[in-house]
Write a structure and sequence with these properties.
single chain; mainly beta; ten-stranded antiparallel β-sheet; 1 helix; about 45% strand
Length: about 150
Protein backbone atom coordinates (compact mmCIF):
# COMPACT_ATOMS: atom_id res chain seq x y z
CA UNK A 1 0.00 0.00 0.00
CA UNK A 2 1.21 3.50 -0.74
CA UNK A 3 1.19 6.04 2.05
CA UNK A 4 -0.70 9.04 0.72
CA UNK A 5 0.93 12.46 0.94
CA UNK A 6 -2.45 13.97 1.75
CA UNK A 7 -3.32 13.63 5.46
CA UNK A 8 -7.06 13.11 4.91
CA UNK A 9 -6.53 10.44 2.27
CA UNK A 10 -4.07 8.71 4.58
CA UNK A 11 -6.49 8.76 7.50
CA UNK A 12 -9.30 7.34 5.40
CA UNK A 13 -7.12 4.40 4.35
CA UNK A 14 -6.42 3.66 8.03
CA UNK A 15 -9.99 3.79 9.35
CA UNK A 16 -10.71 0.32 10.70
CA UNK A 17 -7.82 -1.16 8.75
CA UNK A 18 -4.58 -1.94 10.58
CA UNK A 19 -2.99 -3.17 7.35
CA UNK A 20 -2.13 0.39 6.24
CA UNK A 21 1.52 -0.38 5.42
CA UNK A 22 1.34 -3.99 4.20
CA UNK A 23 3.64 -4.69 1.26
CA UNK A 24 5.68 -1.49 1.67
CA UNK A 25 9.46 -1.72 1.81
CA UNK A 26 11.14 0.10 4.69
CA UNK A 27 14.61 1.27 3.64
CA UNK A 28 15.44 3.29 6.74
CA UNK A 29 14.23 4.39 10.16
CA UNK A 30 15.23 7.77 11.61
CA UNK A 31 14.52 9.51 14.88
CA UNK A 32 13.46 13.16 14.95
CA UNK A 33 15.25 14.92 17.80
CA UNK A 34 14.93 18.31 19.47
CA UNK A 35 18.61 19.31 19.42
CA UNK A 36 18.78 21.45 22.59
CA UNK A 37 18.15 18.19 24.48
CA UNK A 38 21.04 16.57 22.66
CA UNK A 39 21.24 13.07 21.30
CA UNK A 40 20.92 11.68 24.81
CA UNK A 41 17.18 12.37 24.76
CA UNK A 42 14.58 10.14 23.15
CA UNK A 43 13.18 11.04 19.73
CA UNK A 44 9.99 13.12 19.54
CA UNK A 45 9.04 11.16 16.44
CA UNK A 46 10.20 8.25 14.30
CA UNK A 47 10.11 8.36 10.51
CA UNK A 48 10.02 5.18 8.43
CA UNK A 49 11.53 5.79 4.99
CA UNK A 50 9.88 3.75 2.25
CA UNK A 51 11.38 2.53 -1.01
CA UNK A 52 8.91 4.56 -3.09
CA UNK A 53 10.32 7.83 -1.64
CA UNK A 54 7.39 8.29 0.72
CA UNK A 55 7.62 8.07 4.48
CA UNK A 56 5.55 7.34 7.55
CA UNK A 57 5.80 9.53 10.67
CA UNK A 58 4.89 8.29 14.15
CA UNK A 59 4.75 11.12 16.68
CA UNK A 60 3.98 11.24 20.39
CA UNK A 61 1.12 13.52 21.42
CA UNK A 62 0.77 15.46 24.67
CA UNK A 63 -1.66 12.82 26.00
CA UNK A 64 0.94 10.06 25.41
CA UNK A 65 -0.90 8.71 22.37
CA UNK A 66 0.77 7.98 19.07
CA UNK A 67 -0.11 9.90 15.90
CA UNK A 68 0.47 7.89 12.72
CA UNK A 69 0.54 9.83 9.48
CA UNK A 70 2.42 10.61 6.29
CA UNK A 71 5.98 11.80 6.73
CA UNK A 72 7.70 14.73 5.10
CA UNK A 73 11.17 13.23 4.55
CA UNK A 74 13.58 14.81 3.83
CA UNK A 75 11.83 17.97 5.09
CA UNK A 76 11.07 18.48 8.76
CA UNK A 77 7.41 18.42 9.82
CA UNK A 78 5.79 21.86 10.09
CA UNK A 79 5.58 21.61 13.89
CA UNK A 80 9.40 21.57 14.20
CA UNK A 81 9.76 25.22 15.21
CA UNK A 82 12.29 26.72 15.08
CA UNK A 83 13.52 24.35 12.38
CA UNK A 84 17.18 24.93 13.26
CA UNK A 85 16.60 23.25 16.63
CA UNK A 86 15.46 19.92 15.13
CA UNK A 87 17.25 17.14 13.25
CA UNK A 88 16.76 13.66 11.88
CA UNK A 89 19.31 11.16 13.14
CA UNK A 90 19.97 7.44 12.95
CA UNK A 91 18.76 5.36 15.87
CA UNK A 92 21.92 3.50 16.91
CA UNK A 93 20.12 0.58 18.57
CA UNK A 94 18.21 -0.37 15.42
CA UNK A 95 19.75 -2.66 12.81
CA UNK A 96 20.68 -1.50 9.34
CA UNK A 97 18.04 -2.49 6.79
CA UNK A 98 18.82 -5.49 4.60
CA UNK A 99 19.53 -4.92 0.90
CA UNK A 100 16.28 -3.64 -0.60
CA UNK A 101 14.80 -2.93 2.83
CA UNK A 102 12.36 -4.77 5.06
CA UNK A 103 9.07 -5.85 3.47
CA UNK A 104 6.13 -5.09 5.77
CA UNK A 105 3.98 -8.17 6.24
CA UNK A 106 1.52 -6.80 8.78
CA UNK A 107 0.81 -3.77 10.94
CA UNK A 108 -1.14 -3.49 14.17
CA UNK A 109 -2.33 -0.59 16.28
CA UNK A 110 -2.92 -1.07 19.99
CA UNK A 111 -5.49 1.36 21.35
CA UNK A 112 -6.46 2.63 24.78
CA UNK A 113 -9.96 2.62 26.30
CA UNK A 114 -10.81 5.80 24.32
CA UNK A 115 -9.79 4.22 21.04
CA UNK A 116 -6.61 6.29 20.73
CA UNK A 117 -3.48 4.60 19.34
CA UNK A 118 -0.73 4.22 21.94
CA UNK A 119 1.39 1.57 20.23
CA UNK A 120 2.06 0.50 16.64
CA UNK A 121 3.65 -2.78 15.59
CA UNK A 122 5.17 -3.01 12.13
CA UNK A 123 5.95 -6.64 11.31
CA UNK A 124 8.51 -7.27 8.61
CA UNK A 125 10.21 -10.27 7.12
CA UNK A 126 12.74 -11.23 9.80
CA UNK A 127 11.47 -9.08 12.67
CA UNK A 128 9.19 -6.37 13.95
CA UNK A 129 9.29 -2.75 15.03
CA UNK A 130 7.30 -1.70 18.09
CA UNK A 131 6.70 2.05 18.46
CA UNK A 132 5.20 3.30 21.73
CA UNK A 133 3.86 6.78 22.42
CA UNK A 134 4.68 8.47 25.72
CA UNK A 135 6.41 11.66 26.78
CA UNK A 136 8.66 10.83 23.82
CA UNK A 137 8.61 7.96 21.32
CA UNK A 138 10.16 4.63 22.23
CA UNK A 139 11.06 2.17 19.49
CA UNK A 140 12.46 -1.33 19.58
CA UNK A 141 13.21 -3.92 16.96
CA UNK A 142 12.95 -7.64 17.62
CA UNK A 143 14.49 -10.12 15.19
CA UNK A 144 12.36 -13.12 14.30
CA UNK A 145 9.95 -14.27 16.99
CA UNK A 146 12.34 -14.69 19.92
CA UNK A 147 15.37 -12.60 19.00
CA UNK A 148 17.18 -10.14 21.20
CA UNK A 149 15.51 -6.73 21.37
CA UNK A 150 17.08 -3.39 20.66
CA UNK A 151 15.32 -0.41 22.25
CA UNK A 152 15.74 3.29 21.66
Amino acid sequence: MRVENDEEAFRSTRQGNAEWLRGARVVGVLGLFYRPEGRMGEPEAVEFLLSDRQSLLLTCASDWTLHVGPGTWPRLPEWCVPAGQWEFAALPHLPEPPDGGWTVTRTEELRDERGEVHQAVIRCEGGRFVVIGGDTVAIRYTRGHRGAEATT
